[in-house]
Amino acid sequence: MKSYFEPVSLPSELLSVAEMYQADRLAMEGGVSGATLMEAAGKGIADLIIDTWPTGRCLVICGPGNNGGDGYVVARHLTEAGWQIDLASLVDPEVLTGDAALMRDRWEDDILSLREVTLDDLDLVVDAGFGAGFSRFLESDISTLLSRVKKAAVPVVAVDMPSGVNGDTGAVDPGAIPAAMTVTFFRAKPGHFLYPGRSYCGRLQIIDIGIDVEYLEEIDPETHLNGPDLWRDDLPLLTPEIQKYSRGHAAIVGGGISSTGAARLAARASLRAGAGATTIVSPPSALMIYAAAMEAVMVTSIGEAGDFADWLQARRIGTVLIGPGNGVTDRTREFTLLALESAANVVIDADALTVFRDDPDMLFSLISEKDEGEVVLTPHEAEFERIFSLAGSKLERARTAAALSGAVVLLKGADTVISTPDGKAVINYNAPPYLATAGSGDVLAGLIAGLFSGGMTAFSAAATAVWIHGAAGNMLGPGLISEDIENVIPEILSGLFREL
After folding, report:
1. 252-288: per-residue pLDDT in tens?
2. Rounded to an integer, what distance in angstroms lies between the CA atom of residue 387 and that of residue 452?
3. Closest to 360 measured CA to CA, from 404, 423, 422, 411
4. Alpha-carbon gap, residue 244 to 247, rounded angstroms
5. What are the beta bridge partners of residue 172?
6. DSSP letter at 474?
7. How far apart (Å, rounded) are the C-alpha atoms in residues 106 and 80?
């Protein structure tokens, strides 16, 4: 099975471990017992196993808490379906309490210790060890057992989360092993989609265990999975009386002679995504290269910073993208500062971020002082480290960076995270590895600028652009190059507009 999720439809809400505990509590306060929830969870997992694998011999590994209680239920239902079950407990079964102890008592067969486990002729392993709340380390005897399972090449079904993977952060203990399938309850967790945890989950299944969806309103999740349901209604609709400048004029600051490709990729993507007009701002030395290569994209030559500020105001530029191919130069720094001082929305990418590595506070100060327009920062991990140098999970770092900078932060990667300064965040999951190619990030920056220019908010423009970028990668498949991406944008947008 693939180590990344195929772009399928999943509920958008992602619950932290604490928020999932809250959902359980609300369900129980509403009259659903913990035992009923646990029974539904275990039976649901067993049903998925029965539907996916032929009947055989299965080892069920049960941990010390409710995750282990789910395992006892799985074992009981698989036994009733004709499976041969070996059940092993990671702890003395007598230490279990509450609903987990109740499910242990309903299990009428033997409970093995770790030293009694044999892996001969196994067809499946159910990992009901620790679940999403895991936050410490796997003890050596547990790691040894999991290592034996991995060497035996037996498929694993993880209950809630593979043992050793943190449900909030996606952090992975060295002793954890990948699952063929992970089954979680009610809603997924951030750790299911943040690397490296995501690569350990295999096929993700979310099952209903009796928690009312209305509880989500009270929980008010802080994190969502990126997808059209979040921003489709924000897409700018075209009316018969619209004209190009009412769709916004975007400026793409271009680099010198040796690096014109980045701005050209971004500019064409900007037009495709919705900007009514796009102009590349070229250094005088590169004007002829840009002019000869571009058709629908306009080109202007500006060498001096003061002229750039005057031009932004005179042409009523609504969005500025600066960074792709610009070089880490005084010109890049000066033009970025002037863009932030203007009334335009600003997308700061690549070299326009790196140029502030020695003075990020100046960048943050100008963003916070900006009276008009919003700002999006689009670092990859190396650029992020140069500007922010923050610890924590990718989700935590993106949130902190957005709050610190006052901008919407798009932290790129296979699990791109987008966060607002007030903590609203999405994790993107539809990007295939084919997008790891030169110029792909420039196209993404142009998409953001085009959607921004068309009237979307900073957060919606960033989230939409990342999703479209991933959808294009999936549509094009292996062998794509960055120039290909713009060609499928109209088809993707058409599909989104049809659903409005």
Report:
1. 999 999 999 999 999 999 999 999 999 999 999 999 9
2. 24
3. 404
4. 5
5. 165
6. H
7. 13
